[in-house]
Write the structure tokens for this entry.
Amino acid sequence: MSEGIWRADLFTGPDGPKSSLPPGLEDGDVGERHLNPHLTADPVAWAMAQLADIRALLIGSGAADVADAVPQALLDVVLPDIRRAIERSFEPIETVAGRAG
């Protein structure tokens, strides 16, 4: 697969967490971003809810042809690690850097 299927932008700005959901990927371009109130209110919970049903996410993103190729049981095993990675991405860089040194 050479192109993306789905993308959510989860990041922290000067005013706190900001998140957007590009409406789709076309030729590698995310197009105009749309703010989603549920995504902005709790980006970790929103992302985890999307990933919890990977089949529906893939079908909704136009990748129905690969939806059955992702074993849900395997994804369920790694979802806690994905959650921790997303949560860490919102930590201040000083906190993350202090752990590394």
